[in-house]
Amino acid sequence: MDEVKKFCVIGLPVSHSLSPMIHKEFAKQQGINIQYKMIEPDTEEHFETHAQSFFSKKGFGANITIPFKEQAYNFANSYDESAIECECANTLMLKENEIRAFNTDGRGFINDFYNKDISLSKKDILILGAGGSAKSIINSLVKEDIGSINILTRTPDKAIRLIDKYKKSSDIRVYKDNSKYDIIVNTTPVSLIKKEIDFPSSIFKTDSLSYDLFYSKNNTIFQDWSDNNGAIKSYNGLGMLIEQAALSFNIWNDFKPITDGISKKLGF
User: What percent of the chain has pLDDT over 90?
Assistant: First the structure.
């Protein structure tokens, strides 16, 4: 019988994750046997303990989600270019006795826009939040032919660091009151924690799109808020989740899975 490769996703919370189902579908395409489990540390301080335990028991690869992406980067021994640029990781792999870190979030985000035939060219984009996911997305957006990137966050020091990092290569700035944008991207966990939304509703143009990194079988809280406040169309992050997972799977198994049709297999 073929050896079973062990994978996992580590997050807090993680019980909602579709990653196990997605990677099992990819494994079917390749014809390999995998075990993919969910690991939820009880506090943010316990990430390293759980990650170390997983890899010490012949774990092969791990997906990392909120709130551990920056800790995952610090946990690793070596890094790909994207992880270094973002200073956070959503993919870990044990190879040749070292933990290697990768970041597939930003590329997965861009690939989902391509799949949806949404042009980013010359678009003014507002990023809500400045955490690990925002870092990853901004790092990929600056390589596209966009108009501007704007950041709205309650942690302005994080926004300033991102602006300082990319200002030489891109038009990137802090949100200004009453500004309007072509694309609004929510990287905050408001939809996950069902928190009341207090973003300014003036951010929408008559043809603005919104994109929530979180996903649900029904509209997310952020999608509903966007639809009610002027977005012409809102999307959730399922497509990004699938695309970043495909990139992770390829890193681990040297196999590019087909992503078309995966959302239907997940019941969406």
Answer: 89
